[in-house]
């Protein structure tokens, strides 16, 4: 404890936290400053200067004391207690003015009040410890019982004073209201001084006990150690889990102050207590050196809980008065005093036997054990999880994957425990600080949606998804945003659709604006307008606008996940802040969303389209003509990018290509997942019967499908391979189908695969929403088939809802004819025989550089969309090409599937978008910014049960008391 007088602690406990707090507050202020009234800006500046002054004074004193080899003085500790307590109190008092409630809370994801308490409490705690050490010099008699008595007397006196004030309130209320604030200042001062006195005497009592002056305790000295180091920590964990409130949480559930329900926390608590209570004087030098290492290794455990409960220490005295078990909040503080004193004793006892370097090496080596072990565990989970995400969503087909399913199971369970984006002050589902560290290191500050967790579970384990963690404040989202407003909800609809088209001779393309007017069919409601728009090949989005009041606001082209997150936050906030979002749903399908559409008010929005040929566009049941047929060259010749990497074929050019008829062959995808071992004999019978009754001219091919896909060579003994294959994992049909389609497009031939899935459990297979991005790989038909036990082929669609059966008969022996490009003899691609334009990659197997630009915007769009199609065939390039592809989209102002146009109302929203975008672009592209659940209306407050809610009621009571005092003070003023 005496080591806390070293001024170097000011660097770690005062200057460092102040710098972090200043950086955090500046980051939040830079986002919301444009929304703040002048009074709030003035408060930000005042508190900023105050924070800077506190930090500068502490830094100057630190340098002076270090240079003069002085210990931290009593006067500095007293001054720090007064100054920092005053700052915390003033900021808490003015918090609603610093950040008015009119500022949407999603713009400031950090609770600044909690951060002020968290980052400044180490300074207050250090100053308190300095005073304890200064007023308890070793070698003099001190009474632990006397200090315990004084500590108890403070809350008892406060309770009696509270009762007295309550009885005399009628006489004193006038003084409080009209006494120029004197009564208010007196009461606030008592509230501030009381907890400090309580903590001072309590810590001093524990410190005296740790000094070894225990004569007044007789033979019971070990008892208080056991109570402080083992009983109270274990009891605190149990109370946090709800043991005394009728609900004992498991390790996947929330706790009162956080999720500390893992058996590891209990095991470490018992081990830590045992090590601290071990009689070290009976050990030899080597044994005590080993004990020093073990005790220092668990100091991180003690310090962690001390940090967690540090912001709550000022409430501890009130908690002791209000709640019998409130003293458990003080257990980490008392444990830290004992732990640090014990380590100090060990270092002193080992001084005659070991050099200072050896003792410090053992101490520091022990201190890093838990942090390094935790970081290593988290890093391993990151590696396992990110490799699984790579395999599932951006695989390298040339790479052999063999993931550790057990490690992935553990990683997914931990992800679900940590993945929430917020930590509630009470009834938290996260582990404070640890969850923040985990989400940063493992999830790149993003999230892994439940849908992807379910996919990974089914792929690698062949099991049903993990159950979602119970939440004490569970909320069920409504089916639409306006459900909470009444049983009948007006639906926005398109009222007017018009176009403006101009032919740009330089680009040799049309530039068209599509203008929409939207209004609500029920003038008493507000809701979101949402529609899908299908574009032809060769049509790109070049701009987007939304009218906000009297002004026209053009969209910001941003990363799609970040833009969608910001849009969802605004809609969820429901303050009428006019966002509009335009993004891709699929390769040629747009999603347009506008919120809010209020009553009969007309919302006007528009999209700029760059297209090579005139076409008819359908939106909301209406059709408009874009471009004038015959007013520009028909474009019979193909249009290609420089070097011919991407080719655009207009409808006329496509009709000139020769028709060919390719021969299909069966490609059987045999389900060898877990639980399907008994079905192998039936698979063989079904396949053989199909080959007899519906043979094809080209021989079949086979792939074995579980978590991985094992293609069998042409002519291989598929029955033997099927019999010898181990049934494990899930049936990852997504990977098998994509692998087959990709191979067919990379190596175009006169034959093509007719995919047939052989399984008894298609419902358990992993399938995506569609395979539309690989549409060029199946020009004949978008159907694949499931071979049923009765021998029938059940048709399914590759283009939409693959898991749903189609009402279709058996496939023909030959598919429809297709167009061969550039000719039938040396075809590089095959195109469906339709009247639609098409994009062609002449050499899809060759590397394709990220687009750097083209002479015209339309040509740049051709490059971008061609590269996007190439990436679908080369998912392994998604990681390295993801960021450059998005940056190319930004430079060109051309919308791609990885970007979105977002219209925002004010600069604060744009700053929040920029911040979120930087976060997303720095993360793994297979992670997401949010869950896929509908946004929660701001008016639908989550219900908070009262089970274990006494702490919440305590805080609410304190907040109401401060608010009441503040109101009385204003009246007096």
From TrEMBL:
The keyword Transcription regulation does not apply. Residues 480-611 form the VIT domain. The chain crosses the membrane at residues 43-67, 74-94, 106-133, 145-172, 184-210, 222-244, 264-280, 292-313, 319-340, 361-379. It comes from the Bacteria. The keyword Acyltransferase does not apply. Keywords: Membrane, Transmembrane, Transmembrane helix. This is MSEP-CTERM sorting domain-containing protein.
